[in-house]
């Protein structure tokens, strides 16, 4: 059996079968089709039935080529892609003159989120095969992108709790109204019941979004995995010390009781009475033992809290009702935007080695995940060479990052950008202890020369992304937005491939 795909064969609508005369060989349409033919789409095909049963679907390679072609031209809206299938010759060639509607395009992107993420590494491998990836230096940077949500939809924890309580009370009231008995022929009751059902549907959607926003506020105040591990290790050490101290004082008191019992037996054998003095108190009544038991209980409670942190969001914390995963963060050109922090790792010629979402307006905790993801992508794409220098600006400077990446040739600015190339260096006593090794590395001639490449590597990468796609995201939720930015990264790297393939080859 075979897949039940709609036929999108070339040329069914043309006066002749050969389509190559409609567009020149160097046109973007043919470049996209060629690259899609080099990709492994097994991840996409896995979600289709291979027994030929079910309704016919468009082939995933056709939809993927259509999406990549339109994105390369800056067309990202599914409705505009639908319109392009009518008036863009490249789209008509890709689809075989099929009019693909916007809902099909939107469902394809949502259905194949994981496939799009895996496709990023395949395109990076194609860049590597063409010799476009240079790992002499890799720069990491982040920039906000505006979410598909307005700032006015942000609510505090108190407002969300009030909204949830009021909504639940209204749902109970509506359910009670619908349960009221009525005659079957009473048209007024049926009209009111229909209105209640519509209201219940809207309330259910609003309650679901309010609960998601409330949960997101609690999730954001949770410490990171590294912070939890550090706190758990410290709490375990305190518990171990408390256990040891309790064992020591208990053993000492047991020894006193045993000594007293031995002396009492000796006195009785010798015919002496009360010569051994006042007997020691019982173990459970000994002050030191009780104090150490209380200390152990506090240490165990601290360990429980470290293992199960439940901090309370501050009164200033806000979450969006429209897209709870988005954050209020400083805009690139001033002010605040409701958006996502997008992180990229760029090599020479702005080839993206990684493009990731970071759930924090601050870049500090993004450095380790982005570098590890870039390393994973390079290894998967067959790039075995070591990166000679990882470069990042002062927004990533922290002792935790320097410790976690101590095995890498890392250069992270500790001051403003222009200060790194100056001849003068800060005094060692002005630099925190955890930053002194990095300061010495940056102060060397080689360190200054390497760090001077940071801006030229990564800043044009963001400029090219935003020039083609703008700063606004179209999807909502972490998973959908992550797949969306992966698609932007795929198209960005594909354009590097297209320009490389279009260059005249040396004789």
From TrEMBL:
GO molecular function annotation: DNA binding; transposase activity
Sequence ranges assigned to domain Transposase IS4-like in this UniProt record: 332-494
GO biological process: DNA transposition
Coiled-coil residues: none
InterPro entries noted in UniProt: Transposase_11, Transposase_InsH_N
Domain Transposase InsH N-terminal: 18-111
Protein name (record): Transposase
Annotated source species: Micromonospora pallida
């Amino acid at each position: 059996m075979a897949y039940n795909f709609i036929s999108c064969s070339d040329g069914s609508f043309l006066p002749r079968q050969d389509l190559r005369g409609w567009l020149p060989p160097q046109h973007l349409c043919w470049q996209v089709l060629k690259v899609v033919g080099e990709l492994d789409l097994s991840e996409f095909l896995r979600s289709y039935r291979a027994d030929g049963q079910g309704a016919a679907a468009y082939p995933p390679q056709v939809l993927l080529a259509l999406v990549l072609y339109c994105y390369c031209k800056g067309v990202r809206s599914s409705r505009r892609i639908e319109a392009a299938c009518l008036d863009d010759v490249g789209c008509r060639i890709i689809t075989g003159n099929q009019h693909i509607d916007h809902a099909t395009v939107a469902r394809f992107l949502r259905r194949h989120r994981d496939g799009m993420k895996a496709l990023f590494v395949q395109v990076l491998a194609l860049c590597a095969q063409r010799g476009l990836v240079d790992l002499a230096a890799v720069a990491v940077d982040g920039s906000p992108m505006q979410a598909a949500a307005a700032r006015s939809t942000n609510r505090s924890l108190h407002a969300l709790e009030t909204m949830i309580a009021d909504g639940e009370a209204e749902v109970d009231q509506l359910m009670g109204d619908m349960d009221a008995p009525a005659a079957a022929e009473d048209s007024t009751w049926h009209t009111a019941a229909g209105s209640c059902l519509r209201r219940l549907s809207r309330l259910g959607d609003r309650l679901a979004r309010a609960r998601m926003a409330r949960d997101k506020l609690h999730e954001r105040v949770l410490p990171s995995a590294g912070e939890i591990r550090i706190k758990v290790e410290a709490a375990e050490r305190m518990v171990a010390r408390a256990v040891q101290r309790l064992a020591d004082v208990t053993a000492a008191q047991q020894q006193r009781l045993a000594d007293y019992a031995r002396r009492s037996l000796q006195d009785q054998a010798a015919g002496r009475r009360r010569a051994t003095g006042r007997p020691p108190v019982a173990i459970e009544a000994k002050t030191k033992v009780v104090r150490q038991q209380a200390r152990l209980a506090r240490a165990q409670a601290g360990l429980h809290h470290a293992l199960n942190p439940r901090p309370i969001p501050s009164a200033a914390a806000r979450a969006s009702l429209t897209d709870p995963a988005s954050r209020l963060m400083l805009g690139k050109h001033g002010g605040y935007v409701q958006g996502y922090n997008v992180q990229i790792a760029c090599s020479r010629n702005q080839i993206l080695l990684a493009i990731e979402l970071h759930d924090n307006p601050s870049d500090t905790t993004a450095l380790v995940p982005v570098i590890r993801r870039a390393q994973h992508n390079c290894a998967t794409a067959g790039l075995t060479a070591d990166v000679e220098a990882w470069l990042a600006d002062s927004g990533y400077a922290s002792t935790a990052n320097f410790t976690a990446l101590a095995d890498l040739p890392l250069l992270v600015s500790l001051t403003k950008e222009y200060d790194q190339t100056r001849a003068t260096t800060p005094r060692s006593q002005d630099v925190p202890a955890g930053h002194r090794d990095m300061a010495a590395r940056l102060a060397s001639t080689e360190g200054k020369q390497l760090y001077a490449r940071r801006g030229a590597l990564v800043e044009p990468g963001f400029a090219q992304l935003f020039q083609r796609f703008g700063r606004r995201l179209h999807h909502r939720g972490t998973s959908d937005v992550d797949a969306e930015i992966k698609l932007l990264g795929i198209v960005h790297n594909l354009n590097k491939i297209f320009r490389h393939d279009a260059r005249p080859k040396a004789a």
